[in-house]
């Protein structure tokens, strides 16, 4: 076996740990009991979103579960120190070997006055992680545009695109090549009432994402117009970004990402104080 084939095999083994479906929640959203339930349902990964300055909440989820993969979606390079994050990564690896994957990204320019040249800044952050021996196959990047997608394939396990469509997934797979992880997030509302689904889904899409340039640029690359993005988003845009319907209909929409080239799709349930119930309905559909 050649060195390149061994590397590809290793990457494939890491990707397999994510499973087909994941559950996405904000940092500290899932209680330890909910994390256990998500694991018991058969989900492969719990994703913790937001921009944490440290990885302390990760430990709570890992302690509550036995084998499920846990990943950040994402640690923001602008409000975290790579050397600190690297040290916490190694501590988690020591205590929970092989279970934690570090997702990092540049966030968006509206969030910080320090936001400049995100592509180069992410590269510098990865350099620092390299210096502290955080393995490339144990990290991934938030990536929407072509340059960041290429970097995610070259310097990490792969990409975790947020607020995207299966059409974006297809384009991302072309850029990433066949071997990198592609793990998009997709929002869902379990209702067959389209008006109700849009009423739940529109506010968290509109604020903040339809006012953030990196997300709106990506939507325009997919063919959406200024009119689609204005005034909280057109019905067509909201329906594309927030799946609704029966559990089977929602799962079919999520599976469009898999058909388009995703290895894994992670589900963010909207409008429910008991998201595990919806996650159970979706995965069993």
Automatic annotation (TrEMBL):
Residues 34-112, 118-263 form the Luciferase-like domain. InterPro entries: Bact_Lucif_Oxidored (IPR050766), Lucif-like_OxRdatse_MSMEG_4141 (IPR019922), Luciferase-like_dom (IPR011251), Luciferase-like_sf (IPR036661). PANTHER family: CONSERVED PROTEIN, LUCIFERASE-LIKE MONOOXYGENASE. This is F420-dependent oxidoreductase.
């Amino acid at each position: 076996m050649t060195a390149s084939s061994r590397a590809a095999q290793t990457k494939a083994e890491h990707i397999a740990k994510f499973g087909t479906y994941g559950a996405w929640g904000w940092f500290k959203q899932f209680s330890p009991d909910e994390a256990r339930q998500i694991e018991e349902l058969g989900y492969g990964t719990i994703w913790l979103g937001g921009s944490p300055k440290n990885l302390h909440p990760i430990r709570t989820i890992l302690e509550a579960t036995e084998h499920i993969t846990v990943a950040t979606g994402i640690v923001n390079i602008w409000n975290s120190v790579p050397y600190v994050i690297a040290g916490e990564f190694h501590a988690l690896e020591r205590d929970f070997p092989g279970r934690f994957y570090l997702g990092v990204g540049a966030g968006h320019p509206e969030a910080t006055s320090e936001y400049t040249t995100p592509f180069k800044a992410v590269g510098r952050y990865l350099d620092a992680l390299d210096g502290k021996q955080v393995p490339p196959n144990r990290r991934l990047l938030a990536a929407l545009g072509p340059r960041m997608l290429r970097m995610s394939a070259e310097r990490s396990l792969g990409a975790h695109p947020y607020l995207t469509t299966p059409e974006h997934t297809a384009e991302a797979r072309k850029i990433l090549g066949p071997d990198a992880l592609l793990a998009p997030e997709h929002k869902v509302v379990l209702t067959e009432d389209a008006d109700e689904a849009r009423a739940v889904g529109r506010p968290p899409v509109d604020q903040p994402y339809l006012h953030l340039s990196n997300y709106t640029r990506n939507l325009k690359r997919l063919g959406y117009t200024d009119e689609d993005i204005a005034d909280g988003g057109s019905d067509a845009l909201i329906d594309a970004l927030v799946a609704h319907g029966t559990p089977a209909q929602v799962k079919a929409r999520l599976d469009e990402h898999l058909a388009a080239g995703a290895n894994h799709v992670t589900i963010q349930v909207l409008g429910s104080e008991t998201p595990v119930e919806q996650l159970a309905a979706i995965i069993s559909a």
